[in-house]
Amino acid sequence: MQPARLLLVVPCYNEEAIIRQTYETLIDYYYHIKRQGVVAENSQICFVDDGSSDKTWAMIQEICTQNVNVVGITLSRNFGHQQAILAGLEKHVDDFDCFITIDADLQDDIHAITAMIEKHHKGAMIVYGVRNDRSADAWFKRITAEGFYVLMQKMGVPVIFNHADFRLIDQRVLKELNNFREANIFLRGIVPLIGFESEKVYYSRLAREAGETKYPLNKMLLFAWNGITSFSTFPMRVVSYFGIINFLIAMLIVAYILFSFILGDAIPGWTSTLLPLMFFNGFNMMAIGLIGEYIGKIYQEVKSRPRYIIEKTLNN
Ligand code: UDP
Ligand code: MG
């Protein structure tokens, strides 16, 4: 079988502490698999600078002048991890047979790349990298991340447990992915929706080699919330169920109040007045807020703004 033309897409946001090392590790591995005939001659590595404010882009430029196998893309500002991946992928739709996305911090084991390509050779159109060992992550990250996958699955989002954005997709899959035009794209949920034959490759997640996580807790929560609300209306349904239960309880309270009134011992107490008032008001606010969330999503999608803006491309 012909070796595949592969593009490795690496999103980078303020990764000056590690990008050089990432480049060296990836390029060594790339030469290695090229010699073995796993990937074709004209395969490439694409670093996408997601509007970094440090020296990341300068370093990518330097790498590009040293090696024509590296493509550099810089976005006009910080658009976010998912958008940076898309920028790298969509720009090269027609140029490669398959695409692997991998984080810039070497937390994903690059040795899984060969296994992914082998599965692709055997016919898999999508190969998910799945972490089977998270011992390198701090306990808090591990618990929140794994809880996130369970929650997503329970809400009907088709995510793959412990799979992040380390995956191989075939050119055909990428073409289909381009038809998913939502602004708020959540690749982990969208890619499984595309279908086709898929496989998994298991690997141990390593510790970040250098630099800091670009996903502090607040960004991680936002990411999770976006993932859930752009895929599932389950939270809205929960609120509706609550609404129904509340309504029934309210009716019982109303009956009780009326009954007391008829019996003539209707001395209104603070508790019976304030308690339901507070409770239902609070609940209404919550429901309105949740509906607002979804309307906000519609608002964003209706505007159909570009998902990213490429400022410059090198070696393309
Ligand atoms: N990243 C990005 N744009 C952002 C945030 C992150 O391109 O706005 C990149 C980052 O450089 C890294 C990948 O996304 O290559 C994953 O981020 P990180 O490793 O910080 O996340 P974690 O592994 O801690 O969840
Ligand atoms: Mg990381």
Question: Can you describe what's shown?
Answer:
With 316 residues, this protein is of the alpha/beta class. The chain folds into 2 domains: 6-212 and 306-314, Spore Coat Polysaccharide Biosynthesis Protein SpsA, Chain A; 234-303. 50% of the residues lie in helices and 16% in strands. It has an 8-stranded mixed sheet with strand order 7-5-6-4-1-2-3-8, sandwiched between helices. Helix 2 links the parallel strand 2 and strand 3 (70-75). Helix 9 (234-263) runs antiparallel to helix 10 (270-303). It is elongated and about 95 Å long. Uridine-5'-diphosphate (UDP) binds at residues 11-13, 15, 50, 78, 80-81, 84, 103-105, 107, 213-215. Residues 103, 105, 107, 208, 213 line the site of magnesium ion (MG). InterPro entries: Glyco_trans_2-like, Glycosyltransferase_2, Nucleotide-diphossugar_trans. It is a multi-pass membrane protein. One of its GO terms (molecular function) is glycosyltransferase activity.
Q: What is the molecular shape?
A: elongated
Class computed from helices, strands and strand pairing: alpha/beta
CATH superfamily of the largest domain: Spore Coat Polysaccharide Biosynthesis Protein SpsA, Chain A
Specify the CATH class of the largest domain: Alpha Beta
Mean pLDDT: 88
CATH architectural label of the largest domain: Alpha-Beta Complex
Portion of residues in beta strands equals 15-25%
Gyration radius over CA: 25 Å
- List the bound ligands: uridine-5'-diphosphate, magnesium ion
Helix content: 40-55%
Query: Into how many domains do the coordinates divide?
Result: 2
Number of strands: 8
Q: What fold name stands as the CATH topology of the largest domain? A: Spore Coat Polysaccharide Biosynthesis Protein SpsA, Chain A
Number of helices: 10
